[in-house]
Amino acid sequence: MTGRSNSSRERILENAESIVLEKGFHATSIKDILDRSAITKGGFFYHFDGKPGLAVALVERYLVQDDEVFSGLSEQAEALSEDPLHQLLIFLNLLAETFGRLPDTHPGCLVASFTYENQLLNEEVQQLMQQGLESWRQMMIGKLERAGAAYPMAGDVSTQTLADMFTAVIEGGILLARNFDENRLISEQVLAYRAFLRMVFGAE
After folding, report:
1. What confidence tens digit (pLDDT) does each residue in 89-104 have?
2. What is the pTM of this model?
3. Phi, psi of 134 (to 5 degrees)
4. How far is the C-alpha of 187 from the C-alpha of 5, rounded, in Å?
5. I need a surface site. Which of 32, 59, 104, 145 has the fewest CB within 10 A?
6. Between vectors from CA 132 to CA 127 and to CA 137, what angle results, nearest 5°?
7. What would the pLDDT profile of 44-84 be if each residue is shown by its tens digit?
8. Degrees (nearest 5) of the Cα angle 120, 131, 110?
9. Exposed/middle/buried for 99, CB within 10 Å: 0-12, 13-18, 19+?
10. What gap in Å lies between CA 101 and CA 70, rounded to an integer?
C-alpha cells in the first residue's frame, strides 16, 4: 500500500511540475493536475493540503534532484583527479555533457519559474528557494576556494561572485535553450564558463 501511495504522490508531483513549467504556478489549477495525473480530488488531498502544500513539495523535490545530480558529477570528477582545479573543470565538463544528452528540450527551472511569481507564494516556499540557491552558491564556493588555494586567481573577483555566475550561466542557458529549442546552448554556456575559469586560475 505504501508503494502505491508513493507512486501516486510522485505521479502528481511529476505532472504538476510539468504543468507549472508550461503555464506558471498561479495559472495551474488543481483540476489541471487531476486531469493529467488521472487521479481523484480525494487522492490529491490525501497527499497535499492544497496548492500551498503542493508548492512546498515541488520545490523540495526539485532541490533534492538537483543535489543528486551535482553530487554525482562531483564524485565522478573527484575520482578522476586529485587536483582541485582539474576537479572543478571536469565537473563542469560532465555537467555540459549531461545537458547535451537530454533527449528533449530542457523543460525549464522550477525555482526560476516560482521566482517570477514570488509574491504569490508563501514564506515557506520562498525560504526553500533561497536555501536552494544558497546551497548551489556554497557548493561552487567550496570548489572555487579549493582551486584558489592551489592556483592564484587573476583579477579582482570574489569566489562568491564566481559561484553566483554559475547559477546565472545555468539559468541563462536554460532560457536560451527553451527559446531556440536547442539544448546545446546550455552546454555551450557551461563550457564558456569553464573556459573563463581556466583564465581566472591561469590554467594551461
Report:
1. 999 999 999 999 988 8
2. 0.90
3. -70, -35
4. 37
5. 104
6. 120
7. 999 999 999 999 999 999 999 999 999 999 999 999 999 99
8. 50
9. buried
10. 16
